[in-house]
């Protein structure tokens, strides 16, 4: 029996607290190195035992077990092993998140956020949700769902990561559900940059689905104001320009500030750019006077990467449709040599 195998025997609910605590500290230390993580993941029962310790009556034991699982799940190389059926790690985490009385709901969200960064992890989590993504959207949207103080902000990252899957985007974009309508309200959420940013990542992924642009811009979702409000400042417009804006942007007031995080501003601009891939999207954005919001943003924006995206977006909006020449820009065939040039530029972006 190896030392690691021996260590795993002490990571059980019925083990003496002092022995269990020492074993857990050693395990936690091993999760801090690549070699240590590989040793642990190759030892039967380690992950399963750590998951069981999340229910330990001793809070310090449960918290250390959750930290060990967060460290393990952050290593993408061992994610496939973590997702092996014998560990039941995904089911454990979903059960904890669903329990409003569990003190470790936030660490559970972090573990799933790590696991879903990979396609394999996203597929496993979505499968384990058993087609009931609405349940977790509902939990996410109830800010005081957890009675032990967990904020569940990292559940936003889980949902965002899941949206890399076409099946999840189809689920979210199903007009018969209210999934997306509930999530878009968090684009201007002040209390958490992680919640705000992750939901915008999900929305941006949904904007790649050109067949759904009319739904995204319809009154049912009303996405355009949700994307423009964080980019708008306190500027006042003349009556003609103001009347063309969506009603939510017409009276923002002199205290209105823009989204402070440059990465989130970039995501907002990229989502708007995706909506411009279709003729319907371009014409809708023009009809709602999107240009004047972007014009004022351009005067204010200092981030060079954002300015590149912003100028590209404005260039699309100010062009006539006959100049663009295509209803759907994603259906345009791009020559291989042009693709190679874009790929060569990619690392510099």
UniProtKB/TrEMBL annotation:
Residues 271-324 form the Protein HGH1 C-terminal domain. Transmembrane segments: none annotated. Residues 97-266 form the Protein HGH1 N-terminal domain. InterPro entries: ARM-like (IPR011989), ARM-type_fold (IPR016024), Hgh1 (IPR039717), Protein_HGH1_C (IPR007206), Protein_HGH1_N (IPR007205). Belongs to the HGH1 family. This is Protein HGH1 homolog. It comes from Daphnia sinensis. The gene is EOG090X08WK.
């Amino acid at each position: 029996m190896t030392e690691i195998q021996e260590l795993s025997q002490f990571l059980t609910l019925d083990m003496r607290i002092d022995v269990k605590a020492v074993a857990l500290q050693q395990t936690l230390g091993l999760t801090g190195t690549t070699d240590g993580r590989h040793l642990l993941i190759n030892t039967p029962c380690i992950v399963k035992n750590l998951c069981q310790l999340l229910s330990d009556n001793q809070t310090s034991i449960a918290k250390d077990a959750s930290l060990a699982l967060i460290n393990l799940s952050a290593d993408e190389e061992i994610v496939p092993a973590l997702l092996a059926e014998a560990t039941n790690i995904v089911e454990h985490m979903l059960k904890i998140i669903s329990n409003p009385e569990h003190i470790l709901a936030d660490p559970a969200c972090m573990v799933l956020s790590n696991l879903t960064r990979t396609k394999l992890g996203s597929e496993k989590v979505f499968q384990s949700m058993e087609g009931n993504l609405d349940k977790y959207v509902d939990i996410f949207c109830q800010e005081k769902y957890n009675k032990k103080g967990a904020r569940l902000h990292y559940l936003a990252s889980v949902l965002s990561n899941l949206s890399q899957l076409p099946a999840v985007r189809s689920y979210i974009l199903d007009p018969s559900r209210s999934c997306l309508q509930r999530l878009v309200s968090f684009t201007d959420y002040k209390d958490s940059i992680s919640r705000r940013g992750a939901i915008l990542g999900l929305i941006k992924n949904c904007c790649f689905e050109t067949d759904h642009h009319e739904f995204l811009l319809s009154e049912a979702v009303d996405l355009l104001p949700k994307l423009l409000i964080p980019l708008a400042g306190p500027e006042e417009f003349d009556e003609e320009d103001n009347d063309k804006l969506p009603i939510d942007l017409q009276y923002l007031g002199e205290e209105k500030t823009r989204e402070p995080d440059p990465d989130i501003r970039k995501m907002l601009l990229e989502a708007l750019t995706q909506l411009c891939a279709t003729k319907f999207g371009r014409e809708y954005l023009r009809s709602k006077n999107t240009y004047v919001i972007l014009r004022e943003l351009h005067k204010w924006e200092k981030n060079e990467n954002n300015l590149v995206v912003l100028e590209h977006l404005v260039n699309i909006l100010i062009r006539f449709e006959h100049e663009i020449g295509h209803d759907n820009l994603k259906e345009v065939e791009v020559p291989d040599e042009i693709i190679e040039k874009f790929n060569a530029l990619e690392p510099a972006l």
